[in-house]
Amino acid sequence: MNRTADVEAFHAAVDAAANRVAAAHGSRLRCGRGCSSCCVDGITVFAVEAERIRAGAPELLAEGEPGPEGTCAFLDADGACRVYALRPYVCRTQGLPLRWVEEDEADPGTVVEQRDICPLNDETGPPLTELPPDRCWTLGPWEERLRALQEAFDGPLARVPLRSLFARSRR
Question: What does pTM read for this prediction?
Fold first, then answer.
């Protein structure tokens, strides 16, 4: 098995599914080049995604400077991602209306649906509670697939901070 190819295939599947959700929202989603309010410091990824970035951007990681503290290490001066084609799963779904299910803290054993969206993308369109489930990104199944990739290749589920990928941040 080729770890990088498997992660690329996973990212391609995520992109296809995320594009379908994004297309259902037309002008509601304002995410685009330079929109980086969700691109913050402290983002971590599984080692299998970090390896894909290392393989695809060796010169940037060896010679480049990470972005300023507080922002994602991969942002350039204009707020654009320097590894956009290699960006991890979490970055591929940012901005979409999200939905997930969790146990109700007030009523253990009862499962409730939760929803959220970037405030910048919540200015137009119907309320999140009125969206059909297929017009939201459902958290859970995709994360499990990524987790399985990580377990198959590296075992431990330790996370890698994106900033740590830069050689200059390790000196």
Answer: 0.88
What pLDDT was estimated at residue 165?
96
What amino acid occupies position 109? Answer: G
| Residue 1: pLDDT band with limits 50, 70, 90 | low
Residue by residue, DSSP assigns the chain as --HHHHHHHHHHHHHHHHHHHHHTTGGG----TT--TT-BTT-EEEHHHHHHHHHH-HHHHHHPPPPPTTB-TTB-TTS-BTTGGG--HHHHSTTS-EEEEEE-TTSTT-EEEEEE--GGG-SSSS-GGGS-GGGSEETTHHHHHHHHHHHHHT-S--EEEGGGGSGGG--
Q: Residue 74: pLDDT above 60?
A: yes
